[in-house]
């Protein structure tokens, strides 16, 4: 499946310069520059892919093409944050929609490298939900549809994701830490999350978050944690983790720990993917724990709430029966 979508990306037609745009921060919070919320489609979503590294451009093109073929996707917006990248290098990413049922793919050069820009409200987001994702994660079509169905079933207030983390308290240091627990979580990552479009405006335009957004800029990290703060403050609930199939090209465990400097990832021709991610930097986990502590101090409250378990696509038999001398699920067919 992964190889197939990579080739699909290479075969899509290129592009008109009109599919490139650059938003300004001054327009983002002006309601006159945004569509009427009542006109946003509830039955489709817009995919926002954050991109920065030119080494990932072949993979990014493949992922954008894959999302654009999904029947629930109204548009794919590539949010390019590297100001030094020449326009010619990005020209093959964008496509017009319509042909073959593809959603349009457009490239938006960010006004700065700020990670806050991935949550800017945008005039061409015409759906009530957005899927925010990284440029090294490919979600299978069925999993994307299921995650969106879960988001809709929660009334659009929940933050739904596929990658979970947690906050925890260091009692000795009296500071929050960033952790992973096998039985609970309070944060979902922007590797892939579905969030209501209204939360983009709250994140970007709420004056109470000004200091927190500046911290994201200083650290070049933690924008996903801040979005989890925002949604928890509004909903009073934790995020929702869904199960599904995801290809994570950026995970450092790819290739069994062998350096990608000499290994082709799955035959895709994409090399060195995992070495350019933020999580590959030293001190990443400590920095994120510091962000949680600082957000708590800045906002004067700790809104993050734990969630337990995940929502799975299936309600099969849970009971065990003995069949053929083995214990198997009772609906298992011999």
Structural class by helix and strand composition: alpha/beta
Counted up, domains total 1
Report the major sheet.
Answer: 8 strands, mixed
What gap, in angstroms, lies between the N and C termini? 29 Å
Query: Radius of gyration, rounded?
Result: 20 Å
CATH class: Alpha Beta
Helix content estimate: 25-40%
Number of helices: 9
Principal-axis shape equals globular
CATH topology value? Spore Coat Polysaccharide Biosynthesis Protein SpsA, Chain A
Low-confidence stretches: 1-18, 257-273
Level-2 CATH architecture: Alpha-Beta Complex
Mean pLDDT across the residues is 85
- In terms of DSSP E residues, the strand content is 15-25%
Run of helices and strands: HEHEHEHEEEHEEEEEHHHEEHEE
Total beta strands? 15
Note down, in words, how this protein is organized.
Keywords: Disulfide bond, Signal, Transferase. Pfam families: Glyco_transf_64. Belongs to the glycosyltransferase 64 family. The structure is a single chain. 39% of the residues are buried. It is built from nine helices and 15 strands. It has helices at residues 2-11, 25-28, 57-68, 87-90, 141-153, 197-205, 210-219, 223-235, 284-299; strands spanning 20-21, 41-51, 73-80, 105-109, 127-134, 137-139, 160-161, 164-170, 175-179, 187-188, 192-196, 240-241, 246-248, 320-323, 326-329. The strands form four sheets. An eight-stranded mixed beta sheet has the order 1-4-3-2-5-11-7-12. A three-stranded antiparallel beta sheet has the order 9-8-10. With 334 residues, it is of the alpha/beta class. The model is unreliable at 1-18 and 257-273 (pLDDT under 50). The chain has one domain: Spore Coat Polysaccharide Biosynthesis Protein SpsA, Chain A.
């Amino acid at each position: 499946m992964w190889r197939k979508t990579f080739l699909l990306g290479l075969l899509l037609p290129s592009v008109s310069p009109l599919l490139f745009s650059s938003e300004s921060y001054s327009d983002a919070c002006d309601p006159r520059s945004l569509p009427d919320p009542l006109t946003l489609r509830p039955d489709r979503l817009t995919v926002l892919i954050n991109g920065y590294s030119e080494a990932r451009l072949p993979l990014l093109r493949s992922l954008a093409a894959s999302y654009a073929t999904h029947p629930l996707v109204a548009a794919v917006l590539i949010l390019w944050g590297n100001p030094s990248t020449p326009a010619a290098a990005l020209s093959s990413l964008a496509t017009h929609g319509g042909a073959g049922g593809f959603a349009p793919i457009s490239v938006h050069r960010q006004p700065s490298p700020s990670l806050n820009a991935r949550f800017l409200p945008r005039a061409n987001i015409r759906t009530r939900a957005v899927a925010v994702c990284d440029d090294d994660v490919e979600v299978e079509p069925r999993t994307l549809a299921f995650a969106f169905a879960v988001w809709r079933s929660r009334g659009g207030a929940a933050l739904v994701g596929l990658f979970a983390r947690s906050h925890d308290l260091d009692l000795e240091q009296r500071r929050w830490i960033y952790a992973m627990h096998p039985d609970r979580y309070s944060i979902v990552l922007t590797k892939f999350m579905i969030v209501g479009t209204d939360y983009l405006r709250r994140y970007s335009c709420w004056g109470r978050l000004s200091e927190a957004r500046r911290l994201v800029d200083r650290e070049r990290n933690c924008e996903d944690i801040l979005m989890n703060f925002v949604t928890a403050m509004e909903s009073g609930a934790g995020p929702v983790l869904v199960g599904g199939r995801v290809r994570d090209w950026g995970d450092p465990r790819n290739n069994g720990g062998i350096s990608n400097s000499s290994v082709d990832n799955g035959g895709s021709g994409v090399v060195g993917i995992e070495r350019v991610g933020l999580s590959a930097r030293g001190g990443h986990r400590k920095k994120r724990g510091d962000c949680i502590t600082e957000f708590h101090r800045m906002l004067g409250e700790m809104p993050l709430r734990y969630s337990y378990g995940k929502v799975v696509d299936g309600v099969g038999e849970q009971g065990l029966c003995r069949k053929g001398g083995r214990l198997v699920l009772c609906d298992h067919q011999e």
